[in-house]
């Protein structure tokens, strides 16, 4: 255990140290940069702007004094980590890097006079504004569901916090042989492999602590990112038999099973699309029929965070259109939108995407203040996931501006090979744990 912990810490330190090349100092001591949102995108932007030029005046407006990381939060459900493990302090950004924080809710934007007003009435002027508001869960997208139900009886937990703790308590105390139903979200949504990782981790946990329990994924989609490698992992770990359209490609690696599998994935074409919730009877009604459950986890449709609407940064899609090269809003000058709320084409809504976008915007701003051309952008994304505690998966991509002016994927290989060795699969799980530590250090340390 000690050698594993030392490896993870060493990996985190090494990865964090090389995460981003140094940016030449801009020398614009009077420039005021206000950042709304202290999550992955906002905190990364604050840190890397200060690394570019310590004299820049960087202020982050964030309503929560402690960040609760969403990445890796499903591991609270299987007791691999605690809620305390998800808490990240802003102290290093404040005291080491000199980032100023206003712990208050941003309320309104005046793009003409370049000011942001907070809920308490504080007015902050800016030369450049970065908005990283994350996502808003559309609880009303599933009839019968509501934020009140999510907080009390049928948690979502897709924004880590009290609902995560509630869902963990429900799952870990579920009756013997009970049923856990996960209502998966429609596209686009934050963390593409996440709902399927959550279901798999609970299948593994139930196999040890509640072996007669059943896990059902009710899905409005027929596929998902990492589906082939995930389904193969489910087959090997839980005896899952993939849908017919996957079997030909996976045939050489699949293991036969005559035992019923505790994990069921109902695709849209098989009637999996959630249609309404009856919380009184704990029943999820789908296109294929009613599913009665002991614990229901609804991951509803998502749009840009509320502040993006309040600031007038969204379009009819519910997300924020940006100039692809710079991530500057197409609706307001000198306002940049990064992370889950931005319209970034092929880039997924993930923490890694927000991080790499933030680093690029830091370069765009500092080079712009100094009168330099920031060059041609290249972005990356890696989403790690688990089919089981020691069974790792990933998708890794590189993105550039394509000929049509949109952001597109340029790499070919993306996933763990289907014929990966047990050692490679185990190492992918180790990488997932090391990445969480390295990623957090890169942003907040």
TrEMBL record:
Domain Sulfide dehydrogenase [flavocytochrome c] flavoprotein chain central, residue spans: 164-300
Gene Ontology terms for molecular function: flavin adenine dinucleotide binding; oxidoreductase activity
The keyword Signal is assigned to this record: yes
Residues covered by the FAD/NAD(P)-binding domain: 32-148
Signal peptide location: 1-24
Keywords: FAD, Flavoprotein, Signal
Residues in Flavocytochrome c sulphide dehydrogenase flavin-binding domain copies: 376-444
Pfam assignment, any one: FCSD_central
PANTHER family tied to this protein: FAD-DEPENDENT PYRIDINE NUCLEOTIDE-DISULPHIDE OXIDOREDUCTASE, PTHR43755
Protein name (Swiss-Prot/TrEMBL): FAD-dependent pyridine nucleotide-disulfide oxidoreductase
Lineage of origin: Bacteria, Pseudomonadati, Pseudomonadota, Betaproteobacteria, Burkholderiales
């Amino acid at each position: 255990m000690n050698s594993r912990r030392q490896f993870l810490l060493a990996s985190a330190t090494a990865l964090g140290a090389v995460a981003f090349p140094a940016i030449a100092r801009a020398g614009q001591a009077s420039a005021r940069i206000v950042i709304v949102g202290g999550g992955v995108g906002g905190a990364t932007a604050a840190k890397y702007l200060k690394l570019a030029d310590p004299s820049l005046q960087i202020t982050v407006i964030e309503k929560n004094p402690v960040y609760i990381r969403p990445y890796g939060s499903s591991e609270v459900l299987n007791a691999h980590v605690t809620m305390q493990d998800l808490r990240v302090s802003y102290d290093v950004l404040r005291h080491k890097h000199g980032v100023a924080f206003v712990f208050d809710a941003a309320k309104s934007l005046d793009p003409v006079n370049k000011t942001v007003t907070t809920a308490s009435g504080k007015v902050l002027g800016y030369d450049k504004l970065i908005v990283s508001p994350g996502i808003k869960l559309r609880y009303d997208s599933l009839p019968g569901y509501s934020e009140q139900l999510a907080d009390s009886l049928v948690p979502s937990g897709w924004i880590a916090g009290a609902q995560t703790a509630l869902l963990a308590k429900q799952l870990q105390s579920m009756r013997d042989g009970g049923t856990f139903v996960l209502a998966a979200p429609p596209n686009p949504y934050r963390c593409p492999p996440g709902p399927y990782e959550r279901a798999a981790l609970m299948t593994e946990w139930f196999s040890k602590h509640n072996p007669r329990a059943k896990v059902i994924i009710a899905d409005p989609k027929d596929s998902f990112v990492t589906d082939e490698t995930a389904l193969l992992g489910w087959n090997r770990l839980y005896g899952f038999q993939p849908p017919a359209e996957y079997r030909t490609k996976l045939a050489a690696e699949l293991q036969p099973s005559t035992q019923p599998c505790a994990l069921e994935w109902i695709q849209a074409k098989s009637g999996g699309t959630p249609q309404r919730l009856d919380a009184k009877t704990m029943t999820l009604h789908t296109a294929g029929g009613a599913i009665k459950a002991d614990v229901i986890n609804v991951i509803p449709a998502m749009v840009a965070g509320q502040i993006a609407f309040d600031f007038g940064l969204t379009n009819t899609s519910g997300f924020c259109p940006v100039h692809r090269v710079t991530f500057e809003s197409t609706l307001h000058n000198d306002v940049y939108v990064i992370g889950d709320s931005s319209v970034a084409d092929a880039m997924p809504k993930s923490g890694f995407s927000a991080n790499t976008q933030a680093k690029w915007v830091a370069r765009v701003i500092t080079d712009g203040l100094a009168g330099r051309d920031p060059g041609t952008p290249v972005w990356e994304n890696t989403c790690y996931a688990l089919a089981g505690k020691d069974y790792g998966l990933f998708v890794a991509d590189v993105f550039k501006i394509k000929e049509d002016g949109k952001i597109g994927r340029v790499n070919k290989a993306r996933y763990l090979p289907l014929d990966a060795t047990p050692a490679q699969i185990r190492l992918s799980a180790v990488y997932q744990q090391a990445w969480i530590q390295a990623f957090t250090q890169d942003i907040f340390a």
